[in-house]
From TrEMBL:
One of its GO terms (cellular component) is endoplasmic reticulum membrane. Pfam families: p450 (PF00067). Transmembrane segments: none annotated. It comes from Eleutherodactylus coqui. Heme binds at C367. Its cofactor is heme. This is Uncharacterized protein. Its main location: endoplasmic reticulum. It is a peripheral membrane protein. GO terms for biological process: organic acid metabolic process; xenobiotic metabolic process. One of its GO terms (molecular function) is iron ion binding. It is found in: Endoplasmic reticulum membrane; Microsome membrane.
Length: 421
C-alpha cells in the first residue's frame, strides 16, 4: 500500500459513515500482506477497507472489535465470499533432518483414519501425493497470479499462472477422493459403519429428501476436501512452529520436559494429563499465539446489507476478521511480538486464560476442528518431547520470520532429535 491515495470513496456504496478506503492491487506490498494489514490497522483504526481489483474487502482489527463482530453480529460472517479461487477449491538419531514430511504425514493420518478408518505408511505414494497436492496449493494461494485471478477473474483466467496449477491440483484431489469413496460404496454395510464416509454414504441411501438435497456426491467430495484442507496443514504447521521454538528456546524445552517427567513419566500421554501441566499448556498456547498460523482467518461475507458500529457493510462484501491483530493485541498480551509462555501463566504458575487468544476464531463460524486440533497438539507435542530433545545444527540461524503462503508457516529448517530413552 505504499504511496496510496487516501480517501478514495468513489466506488463505495453510500452509508451512514464511509469507511476509509485505501489502495488497490497495484499499490499493494504483496510480499508482506499481513504486516501491512497491521500497519494499516495502526493508521486507520479498527475497521478499514480496500479494493482488490473488482472486489471490496473490509478488515476488522483488534480483539474488542473482533469479539463484537464475531459474537454479536454473526450475520456479517454468514457466508464465504464469492472469491473465484475459494469457489474453485471448495530421522536419524542426533543427525540433522527436515521433519516437515513426517509431521505432515502423522497429522494427515488422523484425518485419514476418521474418513477411511485406516492409516498410510509415511512413504506410501498415496499419502505423499495427497500431501503434495495440498501443500503446493497452500503455498500458491498467496502468489501474485492468484491475487490477480481473484481480483480480475474474467481477465486472468485466460493467462497462464499459479491459479491453473491450483485448479489442476484440486482436480487431482477430487479424482483421488471419488475413486476412494466409489470403492467404499461397494463395500458398505449399513449395519457396520466404519468411518465418516460410510456414515455419509448410509445417509445417502436412506431415500429421504435430505439424502438427495444434502448427502449427494458433490457434498461428499467438498466435505472430504474441506477436512483435509482445514485439518492437515494447520495442525502440522503449528507442530513445526513448536519444534522450531523449542530449539530456539532450549530452557523452555527443558521446563516442559521436567513437567512431562513429573506428570506423565514414561506412560503414554493422555488428555487427562493436561490439567496437571500448566506450564506445557501455556507453552502450547503461546506457540499458537506466536505462530499465528491463520492471521486473516478465512474470508467471510454478509448475506444482507448491515451496519456495524456505525459503518455500512453492503451484502456480498468480503470481510476479514484479522485474528493476527487480536493475537498481537498489546492490551491483552504484555510482549506481543515475543515468545513468552508467561502470557498464559499467573504469578503462582497456574494456567491463565486470555480471552484475546482466538487462533481458531470465535462465534458461529469458528474452526470446526478446534477440539480435535487441541488434542492433536497436546498429544503430539508431549509425545515428541517425552522421547526426544530437539536442537539445531551448529551454524543454523533459526529464523522465526514466517514464509509467505495461505498460512504463516516457519521457513524450512533442519533438526537434530536426540533420543531421551
Ligand atoms: C492448529 C490447528 C487449527 C487452526 C489454528 C485452525 C484455525 C481455523 C480458522 C482460523 C478457521 C476459520 C474460521 C473462520 O471462518 O473465520 C478454521 C475453519 C475451519 N477449520 Fe480449523 N484450524 C485448525 C485445525 C483444524 C482441524 C484439525 C480441522 C478438522 C479436521 C479443522 C476444520 C475446520 C473447518 C471444517 C473449518 C471451516 C468452518 C466453517 O466454515 O464453518 N481445523 N480453522
Amino acid at each position: 500500500f505504499k504511496n496510496q491515495k487516501r480517501g478514495n470513496y468513489k466506488n463505495f456504496p453510500p452509508g451512514p459513515r464511509p469507511l476509509p478506503i485505501i489502495g488497490n492491487v497495484h499499490q499493494m506490498d504483496i510480499d508482506k500482506p499481513y504486516r501491512t494489514f497491521m500497519e494499516l490497522a495502526k493508521e486507520y483504526g479498527t475497521v478499514f477497507s480496500f479494493h482488490l481489483g473488482m472486489s471490496k474487502t473490509i478488515v476488522l482489527c483488534g480483539y474488542e472489535t473482533l469479539k463484537d463482530a464475531l459474537l454479536n453480529h454473526a450475520e456479517i460472517f454468514s457466508e464465504r465470499p464469492d472469491t473465484p479461487m475459494f469457489t474453485a477449491t471448495s530421522k536419524g538419531h542426533g543427525k540433522p533432518f527436515d521433519n516437515a514430511t513426517n509431521i505432515n504425514a502423522a497429522v494427515t493420518n488422523i484425518i485419514v483414519s476418521i474418513l477411511l478408518s485406516k492409516r498410510f505408511d509415511y512413504e506410501d505414494p498415496t499419502i505423499l501425493q495427497l500431501m503434495g497436492l495440498f501443500n503446493q496449493n497452500v503455498k500458491l494461494f498467496s502468489s501474485p497470479a492468484v491475487v490477480l485471478y481473484n481480483s480480475y477473474p474474467s481477465l486472468a483466467k485466460w493467462l497462464p499462472g499459479a491459479h491453473e496449477k491450483i485448479l489442476e491440483n484440486v482436480k487431482g484431489l477430487e479424482d483421488f477422493i471419488k475413486a476412494t469413496f466409489t470403492k467404499q460404496k461397494q463395500e458398505l454395510d449399513i449395519n457396520d459403519q466404519r468411518n465418516l464416509i460410510d456414515a455419509f454414504l448410509a445417509k445417502q441411501q436412506e431415500g429421504k429428501t435430505e439424502s438427495t438435497n444434502y448427502f449427494h456426491n458433490e457434498n461428499l467430495i467438498s466435505l472430504v476436501v474441506d477436512l483435509f484442507g482445514a485439518g492437515m496443514e494447520t495442525t502440522s504447521t503449528t507442530l513445526r512452529w513448536a519444534i522450531l521454538l523449542m530449539m530456539k528456546y532450549p530452557e523452555i524445552q527443558q521446563k516442559v520436559q521436567s513437567e512431562i517427567e513429573q506428570v506423565i513419566g514414561s506412560t503414554h500421554p493422555q488428555m487427562e494429563h493436561r490439567k496437571q501441566m500448566p506450564y506445557t499448556d501455556a507453552v502450547i498456547h503461546e506457540i499458537m499465539r506466536f505462530g499465528d498460523i491463520a492471521p486473516a482467518a478465512v474470508p467471510h461475507s454478509p448475506t444482507q446489507d448491515i451496519t456495524f458500529r456505525g459503518y455500512f457493510i453492503p451484502k456480498g462484501t468480503t470481510v476479514v476478521a484479522l485474528l493476527h491483530s487480536a493475537l498481537r493485541d498489546k492490551a491483552y498480551f504484555e510482549k506481543p511480538y515475543e515468545f513468552y509462555p508467561e502470557h498464559f501463566l499467573d504469578s503462582a504458575g497456574n494456567f491463565k486464560k486470555n480471552e484475546a487468544f482466538i487462533p481458531f476464531s470465535i462465534g458461529k463460524r469458528s474452526c470446526a476442528g478446534e477440539t480435535l486440533a487441541k488434542m492433536e497438539l497436546f498429544l503430539f507435542f508431549t509425545s515428541l518431547l517425552q522421547n526426544f530433545t530437539f536442537h539445531s545444527t551448529p551454524d543454523a540461524e533459526l529464523d522465526l520470520t514466517p514464509t509467505l503462503g495461505a498460512t504463516n508457516a516457519p521457513k524450512p529448517y533442519e533438526i537434530c532429535a536426540v533420543s531421551r530413552r
